[in-house]
Amino acid sequence: MNNLKYISTERYYEGIITEINDCAVAIDFKGRMGEIYIPRRMLISDYKIKVGQEVGFMMTYPEVLASDVNEDYLANIKRSNIKKLRKNNKKSKGGAK
Amino acid sequence: MSISAEEAQKMKNEVAVGCCRTEAGTVISAKNLEDPAIIPDLVDSNLLEIPDNCLKIGEVIGAKLKETVDSLTPFTPEMFEDIKKMEEDEDIKLSNEDQAAVLKINKKAGEKITIDDLEDPMHFDKLEDSLLIDLNDSDNVLSRREAVGKTLSQDLPALTPIKKAVIKEYPDSTTEEGGKSNQNNVQRGGVLKIKIDEGKGIDIELPLNTTVQGGAQTIAESNQSKSLKIKDTADKEKKAEEEIIVRKLKRKYFEINEVKFARESKIEDKTLYIRKDICQDAVDSEDLVVDLKIDIITPDDYDKFSNTIMDVQPIAVKEEGELGEGITRVIDGVIVMVTGTDEEGVQIGEFGSSEGILERNIMWGRPGAPEKGEIFIKTDVKVKAGTGMERPGPMAAHKATDFITQEIREVLKELDESLKVREEEFVQKRRPGKKKVAIIKEIMGQGAMHDNYLLPVEPVGTLGAKANVDLGNVPIVVSPLQVIDGCIHALTCIGPASKETSRHYWREPLVMEAMNDDEIDLTTVILIGSPQVNSEKFYVSKLLGMAVESMDLDGAIVTTEGFGNNHVDFASNIEQVGKRGVPVVGVTYAAVQGQLVVGNEYMDAMVDLNKSRQGIENEILENNCLTKEDAIRAIAMLKSKVAGEEIKAPERSWNPNVKLNNIEVIEDTLGEKIELAPNETSLKMSKKRKEIYEKDEKDN
Q1: What is the mean pLDDT of each run of 10 residues along chain B (700 residues)?
Q2: Does residue B105 sit within a domain?
Q3: Of A43, A46, A70, the CB nearest to B535
Q4: What's the domain range around B23?
Q5: Which domain covers residue A75, as residue numbers?
Q6: Which of the two ends of chain A, N or C, has the fewest CB atoms closer than 10 A to its terminal CB?
Q7: Both B101 and B80 in a single domain?
Q8: Is B340 exposed, middle or buried (0-12, 13-18, 19+ CB in 10 A)?
Q9: Considering only CB atoms, which chain B residues are within 8 Å of A47?
Q10: Are the beta carbons of B480 and B514 closer than 8 angstroms?
Q11: Across the interface, do A68 and B390 touch by the CB < 8 Å criterion?
């Protein structure tokens, strides 16, 4: 937390629940300001949750901590991207090169 | 927001700040004042600055304002016509002046004795009954009036009657006798030694806990001639409080140091062979599973990549009796690890995934994690595309893995007894006369990976078990031995650092510590689910309240895993227990990221499970989960609360030193060292990670 230069910049946002599955809830920020995907247990609700419900929350702007790249995370991202590419290749034409 | 008159009385020593614009001539009452609880927040956000001469609430009430002031103005003397001086606390409070003065807290030499340091005489009877103080020799003990304001000439532990000999102001009476007898009676290292004259030199030693536990004494040694009479009564007392053995569970360990594939599954000479074609059968057993691979991970492979770890499980089977009693066989040195993705490569459970290099993502040795040196039978399950996020997907992955484990269980069941390397016995006892305590474990029940299979036929199996979500998350009463015999097969997969795996329950440290603590009577473990919607949360939590009401408990510990909306029911569960007059301690990961979202008046005794250096979810499996040190703290805190001791209010933001202080207090009281669980700083860290994410460590 002490790594942040702009701490406590939280402000009020609203969004719409666009997808619900057994693990997660997707929320579109109003005004096309982005989208978040959170585990179900991170959503507090007095009502049974449904697609189309509006949510409100406080959020700060994420702040990049340093210019360097974490190689471990990068490797994970590459790995999953490669998987996706292979998958798409397979779909488009039995593995055309 | 203004405050009420009662609040004002309670908080008369807090700073006085006007809550709204107040006109000149107003006589200040409680409704003109800002709630002191939010003042630190206002100061933090630079909305308010408290001057040094700011008045106290007790001083401004009833005073007349000279000038009109804006809202959020700290009151200072020049704004008022007349300021009444607050009466000194001491003048109003010293009651029972002629009663004996007994220290309530530890004091050091040179410190002044104040009223607050003295034990309330109303407790004397209880304390004497528990042999914690001896006022028979009250001639030498000072009265409360005499003691207040005096300075100590030597260090004195809590619950010591104050005699002239230890007071600086009475130099003449510091006779050798006085000083010595004190030293004799009170031993350092947390043991109070009391001499009973009639018993002819029988010394009774009992732990001088932070807790005052009635009846926790053991007769340690008697000097020479034992008085029969006293011995008799002691025996009788002992009988009345004899422990009752409810049931026993034996674990037999069979060591395996190699795992290989072969034609058929078998165990030979400490080697486990797994049938080569078992994977296909496992795939066929579940419709949603499209592929399954088994990786045998030996310590040499710890640096390999793994998909997200969904669970860590022991391989165990019942030899005799039902789950929770009888005999269980377990493989020593090998665990099952469930990992998986869907066909499109999306990690099952998606969130809080701990995919990456194994040795960097596992906090070795935690109750729920593998031990360094163990071999993992790691399944990599692939479920149909898109099903990884729906309940059936993760369930299929677990069941397909369990298909393999079940085959190993069958082999283990038939294994020759001679290959057993060691045994461990767990005994569930009831301890009549001791404080009745229940452990309430909140388990996840929001759906899919936030679920648990309960009460399978085999330890940590799936067969015969029902999912917590299907059971409606309602409270379920189980025995402590059922918990450690694997009655919970965990599907929980959110936040790897704070989720509790199946192995965690199998080695649940809080249940183990509470079972072995002979100062409490652990009656039961209650599992309660955490549903998604608030109304459902309150529904199950009310049921918990009723269940607890019927148990006549003296204390309860409520734990929850991870963080998020489960903290809503965590608070509600504590409230339901607390409002029935049962002292309750809450245990959760909170620190920086998991800060509680709600609270109530019963949540005054909380134990934070955080171990990470920065107080965050750092993707390291089991890092912030309940360990033995937390169990010790939780039980000590509960004992203190049951004994009616005051628990200090928390600091405004997370401070890891609070935990260390508590540990120190417990160590001092018990007279033994508590091993602190290591955290992620003991793991291998990539150079980059060290440089970027944890660089503040260098700055400190």
Answers
A1: 74 85 87 84 81 87 87 88 65 69 81 80 77 73 81 82 79 44 41 51 52 36 42 56 92 96 94 95 95 95 88 96 96 94 77 74 92 95 86 91 96 93 96 96 86 95 94 96 96 79 96 95 96 93 96 96 90 96 94 86 93 86 93 95 87 85 89 88 64 51
A2: yes
A3: A46
A4: 1-86
A5: 65-97
A6: C
A7: no
A8: buried
A9: 533, 535
A10: yes
A11: no
